[in-house]
Structures are given as C-alpha cells and as structure tokens.
Amino acid sequence: MNDRFAAIAAGARERRDASRSSGRPRIALCLDTSSRARGGEATLAALREAVAARGLDVEIATTGSWGFCWLEPTVSVRSAAGSRTVLYHSLTPDRVEEFLRAVIVEAGEFPELALGVVEGPATDRIGLLRDHPFMRGQVRRLMANCGRIDPASIDDALANRAYEGFVTALDMEPAAIIELMLESGLGGRGGGGFPAGRKWDFLRNATADPRYLVCNADEGDPGAWVNRILMEGDPHLIVEGMLIAALATHAVEGYVYIRHEYPLAIERMNEAVRQARERGLLGEDILGSGKTFDLVVFTGAGSYVCGEETGLINSIDGYRGMPRIRPPFPAQAGLWNLPTNVNNVETYANAPLILREGAAWWSSVSDDDAKGTKMFTFSGAVNQSGCVEIPFGLSVRELLERYGGGVPGGVPLKGYQPGGPLSGILPAAEADLPLTLAPFRERGMFLGSGGIVFFDETASVVDLCTYFLGFAEDESCGRCTTCFQGTQRAVEILRRIASGGGRETDLDKLGDLIQTMIWSNCLHGQFAPTTVKLALREFRSEFETLIREKRDPTRSLPGMIAYEITNPTAPALAGAAAVCPTAAIVADGAGHAIVDELCIRCDACREVAPEAIAIRDRFA
Amino acid sequence: MAAEPTTRELRALVAGYEFDRGHLLPALIAIQERYGYVSRRAMEALARQLGTTPALVYGAVSFYADFRTEPPPRREIVWCSGPACRLRGGDRIREALQHTLGLPLDGQSADGACGFRLGQCNGTCSEAPQVWLDGEVVGGLTVAAAVALAREVMEDGAS
Ligand SMILES: Cc1cc2nc3c(=O)[nH]c(=O)nc-3n(C[C@H](O)[C@H](O)[C@H](O)COP(=O)(O)O)c2cc1C
Ligand code: FES
C-alpha cells in the first residue's frame, strides 16, 4: 500500500469517526437535480432556519440521490450516538417543524415518512431500507456511496474506500490492469457494450504521444439520467476510474464532457477534480509514484450528436460537433488527432470496483452474458420514476412492476423504449425480455445506456414515431443527406399520416427511407429510423387504421380529432372559454359553441369542463 | 436593455483562450455567461483571439442549441421536449403555450419581455409534464395551468 495514500485515507477516516462520535445527530438531505426540482432547496433552507431558531446542535449535510427520485426530497437522520440512521422521504418545508421535533428534540423517529433503516436494527414501525420493495433485488455497487456521502467532500469519499482501486493499480503493470479488465468482462455502458479492456489495450498500444482519455458524460438520451446520478452522488468514483484507465494506457490528460443541462453535475465534478488535485491524487507525481495525469471538466452546449464519440472529439477540438468518418478510430486519431480512449461515465466507474474487489467478485453478480451491474432509470407510464442498479437479466416487466410501481391508473401497458431515441420501441408482449444486450440486438435494436421509457394504451405509436424522428431530425449534424433529408422526409410522411392525409404508398416509402438511412456515416443516421422500423413491424395496424379508416384509436392525435360541446349551457363552459388560448369557445345564444377552425386541440377546455366537452373523430 | 459589450471589454474577457487547447466552447460559454448572449462583435473578438475566422466561430455558435445571438428575454419559459412529458400531454402544452405567448418555439417577443424555448429532459421525469420558468422547474402541469402560467409571465413582462 502506498504510504502517502494510507496517511490521506487514515486522516479522512479519523475525521469521519470524529463526526460520528461527536454526540451530534446528523441530518443529510439529498440535493441532486431531481430533489431540487421537487423543492429540495426550500427544505434545506427550512431545516437550517428551524435548527438555528431552536438552537439545536445538529450537523446538516447534503448528499446525492438514493434513487427514490419520485419521493424527493429524501433525508437521512443519524442518531446522536452515531449508530443508527433512518431514511425519510418527501420532506416538504411545511413538515420540517414536526419532523425536527420528532427526530431531534425528542430523539425519536418519524414513521409516517420513513423509507427504512439504513444502519441499525428494524423496529415494528420502520423496516430495514434493504427490505423496502424498491431496494429488494438491487445490488448497489456503483451507487454504494450515493445518498450516503457528501459528494462535495473528498474526505467522505475517502472514508468510504475511494481511490483504493487506483492505489492497487499503481502497483500493477499496464498490461496486468488490462488483463484484469478483460477478465471481468466489463462492456461499455454507453450503448455499444464493447469490451472496455480491449479499447484500453488499443490505446496502450498506440504509437503517438501525448494520449488522452475522454469520459462521455453527454447523456443525451431523453429519459436517461444514470450518469447524472453518479456524477451528482459520487464524483470521485469517476475520477478514480479515469485514473485507473490512465495507468493502463499511459494517458496524461483526460476530459470529462458533460452536457450543459447538468449544471450540478458539472459543479460536483469540478469540485471533485479540485479536491483530488489538492490531495495529490491528480496532477504531477501522483502520490509520489512519478505518474502524471490531470482532468479537465468540459461543458457541452446543447447537441445530441456530441454524445457520439467522434462528434464529442470535434466539439472539444473547437469545431462543430459533427461525427467524423471512421476509421481512423479515436485510439489512432482522437483529440487533436492524437490517440484517445472514449468511455461512458458508468464504464469508468466500474473500474475501481474491479481493481479493488477483483474480476471474479465483480462478474459473479449474475450468470448473465453481460457482466456486472447496470443502472437504469425509468419514466413515462410508471407510478414511480427513479433509478436502480441491478444485475443484467431482470425482465423489463419486473423492472416496471417492482421498481416502476406499475402503470398508473391500471391502464394496460402498450410498449416501451429500452434505451434512447435511436434504440426503437417494442410492444408489451415483448416486456418479458431480459434487460441485457443480446435480445435487443437480435431484434435490430439495442438496450442503450439505461433510460427506459414506458407507454400505455393511451399513447399513439405514430405520435411516438413522429416525436423520435423529429428529435433525430433536429439533432442531425447535417453531414449526410441520408440522415438530415431522410429524417426530414420521414417526419413529413408521419405528420401526414397523423393528420388524416396518409396514403397507401406511405408505408412503403417509410420502408425505403429506412433502407437508405442505413448508409449514413454515423449511428445517428443509421439508427434514427429504428423506432419507425420497429413500429411498422410491431404496430402496423395502427398506421393502417389511420390511413385506411382515417381514425385514431387512441383519440390523441390532434389532426384526427375534433372537440364538441355536449352540454352548451353548462356553467363550467365560461371557465373553459376563459382558458382557451385561441378564444375558440364563443358565446352562442344561451350557451357556448366551439369554432373548429380556431381550436388547436390542446384540451385545456376539457380539463376545465370535462362534463360539457367531448372529443370525437374528426373524419367520422 | 444592457448596452452591447464593447470590443475592448470582449477582448479582455477572452484574453488567454487558445484554439489549440480546446478553448472555443469554453470561451463562448464564458461570453454567454457574462453577457447573456454572443454578439457579432463577440464572435469577431473571439476569432481574433483564437487566430481563426469569425466564420468558424459562427459555425460553432450556430451548431449548438444553447448559444443565443440576441440578448436573452427578461422572463423565459423553457418547454421540456422529453418523452415522459410528451406522454403526459407535453405536446398539447407546447401548442397552448405557443398560442398564449404568441411566440414560436425558440422565439422571443420584440420588446425582450418574454421568450419561449425548447429544452431537453434532464431526468426530473417524475415531474412530467414540466417547463422551466426562469430556470426553475414547474412540474405536474395541466394545459390549463400552463396557459395560466404563460399569461402571468406576459403580464409580468409587460409591466
Ligand atoms: C448519436 C449518438 C449519441 C450518443 N450519445 C452518447 C452519450 O450521450 N453517452 C455515451 O456514453 N455514449 C453515447 N454514444 C455512444 C458513443 O459514441 C460511444 O460509443 C461511447 O461513449 C463509448 O463508451 P463505452 O464503450 O464506455 O460505452 C452515442 C452514440 C451516438 C451515435
Ligand atoms: S421528459 Fe420532461 S423531464 Fe424527462
């Protein structure tokens, strides 16, 4: 063990133990982006104010996410004795007073909002957190520190084993590190699943210097926020992963490319890099080893294709973020045309665990072909929108039922999108597929980076296609005609179908487009039509009904419906008229009428007067 | 409205940035953080500092959705274009907001009072459907609530 590191880690543990044995209770509020969106800052302010007003002797800290995103703000309370910690949820400012009275003043607990006991025994009223339905079956390795440590404190990270994997790697030859990575079977988590060890070996064998590492934290797939959870919850895990990769590949500098939509992740990563440098874990002569490596946190500026590794490289280099033509691959010509390795956040984050605990331990978590654990976020038609870490292989339906809490309102599931706008959609009948790489590849799609979007029977598949193709069109870099024109044509056709103007030949036209888009340079253009391809295969009748019968079974497409007043004299219609953005509801004799040409089908009126307004088929 | 920054101020702000070190985006972000937008003059000053052409700088500015080339509006509604929001009526909310504000997506009123912009999901999908009002999440929207919000913003901007 490196002496300098031993001293640094011991210091951190001492400070942690001192805080534990201080006799002061500790309240730790999750303050990630999800918690902020749900009023976390206001709860923190209320806690601070109430603690000050009552003169309570309490340590107040902030943490990253436990994954219970839909129940934020979550708060854990460690007892004054330091031996018991309980996690609570949904702590809004108006409940802070009674909460503090219960957990601090009376040194008791607050079962009403309890999620579970993190540390210490269960009681009749509060079970163990690990027995909570949302936690059962999860294996928290990457997220082991998320929610538990203050992400802005390197001491907290060090006291929880940060950088131990890196220190192990310091004593190893690059080839041995790569051997271990290969043995683990770690595949890239950005969507492709390419073995990380092999990629690192390409860079190790590169012939030019200096060479670079890039951490892809662009996380552009809408509905995916697993990388955000890690960066906001345990940023040092990513720094450490990149340090290990640097040792294995002789890289001297790394870039963490984070999308601008993640200001908090940018702040936390910057702070982690600053603190790591201060402790001698980044920079020159790291821990006296003679090794040099430093990190730059680089902010994106709003572009989906900058998540594609060569688009990302162009973006850092100072050009439009247009994906390059490969080969050459980044390992030959990446940043500034020098050898570069690009991995996803979650890929790097696994390296410390593999180094610290060994490849066998790491890969034995399940017997699935894809090794290790994977983080998933889920949204859309779910009761609970959150983040889990599980071994590969759980079925999509189990994820939905167990962690997503099922579909709201008992509406039947219609389908899901496994991983991002390029990955495609599948019907509910395919919800028994295991969450791993192979079954999705076999269906001409891919599992993706971890964001799963569920949709129920009220959703129109044609609308989803229009949305995802529209997204791909907006985000096309413009290099390939097949991509930027192909997406544009596809959206035109889909819009036509969605508004009652579909033609018998349209489905073949879409089929032709799919064929030509395959010729695009990068995966953006190649996979942009996957949603349509799968939809034509799995939901074809929905397109046919729209084209042949001019009818939308979901009654949700604005071009296929009309609004009508069913009870012209209902008093609620005055409110409906007032809310209508286009003044389409007008006084008509003793009651009200809708001027169809003005109506934009936004549904505001029906929200206000559901008893008096109905939707009908426009072409009936 | 704040006066357009002078060339001298701009040059001082971008001094130290180097093209070969990947500083184009960081410099543009620094300019926008300081002034709220990247003016023509700023692009020229930056091109000079980086030893490149305004065309290359403009090429980047126009590529990324986040850069503005006009001063930002006083109040702004950013609409979440993501899937969870869409599945809960997000597109109807967009339609209603556009008509209430009288602005297209990524448009702003001539007097700079209010703006309407397309935003990307950042994983607060439990709040869907949502918008960001001046950077703060307003979630769990109904269409009627979105219309009320837009009207309030317009009244505010007008006064
Ligand atoms: C249009 C497009 C967008 C992408 N966006 C991301 C992204 O946001 N994050 C990511 O890690 N990979 C993304 N990728 C995949 C990357 O190109 C690359 O394969 C990945 O970063 C490699 O890391 P890994 O081997 O660790 O998975 C994207 C690919 C394409 C074609
Ligand atoms: S889709 Fe709107 S917040 Fe995720």
Domain count of chain A: the total is 5
- The appropriate CATH architecture of the largest domain in chain B is 3-Layer(aba) Sandwich
Low-confidence stretches of chain A: none
The largest sheet of chain B has its strands arranged as 2-3-1-4-5
From the N-terminal CA to the C-terminal CA of chain A, the straight-line distance is 77 Å
Could you say which small molecules are bound to this protein? flavin mononucleotide, FE2/S2 (inorganic) cluster
Task: Output the number of helix runs of chain A.
Answer: 24
Explain briefly what this protein structure is.
The complex is a heterodimer of chains A (620) and B (159). Chain A is α/β, with parallel strands linked by helices.
Can you walk through the features of this model?
The complex is a heterodimer of chains A (620) and B (159). The longest helix of chain A is centred in the N-terminal third of the chain and has 18 residues, at 3-20. The model of chain A has no long low-confidence stretch (mean pLDDT 97). In chain A, helix 18 runs antiparallel to helix 19 (506-517). With 620 residues, chain A is α/β, with parallel strands linked by helices. Chain A has five domains: 3-131, Glutaredoxin, CATH 3.40.30.10; 174-361, NADH-ubiquinone oxidoreductase 51kDa subunit (Rossmann fold); 373-456, Roll (Ubiquitin-like (UB roll)); 461-549, NADH-ubiquinone oxidoreductase 51kDa subunit, iron-sulphur binding domain (de novo design (two linked rop proteins)); 558-617, Alpha-Beta Plaits. By secondary structure, chain B is an alpha+beta fold. Chain B has two domains: 7-63, Arc Repressor Mutant, subunit A, CATH 1.10.10; 75-158, 3-Layer(aba) Sandwich (Glutaredoxin). Chain B has seven helices and five strands, in the order ααααβααββββα. Chain B has a five-stranded mixed beta sheet with strand order 2-3-1-4-5. In chain B, helix 1 (7-14) crosses helix 3, helix 2 (24-35) packs antiparallel against helix 3 (40-50) and helix 6 packs parallel to helix 7 (143-158). Chain B is elongated, with a radius of gyration of 18 Å. The model of chain B has no long low-confidence stretch (mean pLDDT 96). At the A-B interface, helix 2, strand 8, helix 12, strand 10 and helix 17 of A face helix 2, helix 4, helix 5, helix 6 and helix 7 of B. The complex binds flavin mononucleotide and FE2/S2 (inorganic) cluster. FE2/S2 (inorganic) cluster sits between chains B (80, 82-85, 121, 124-125, 128, 130) and A (222-223, 379).
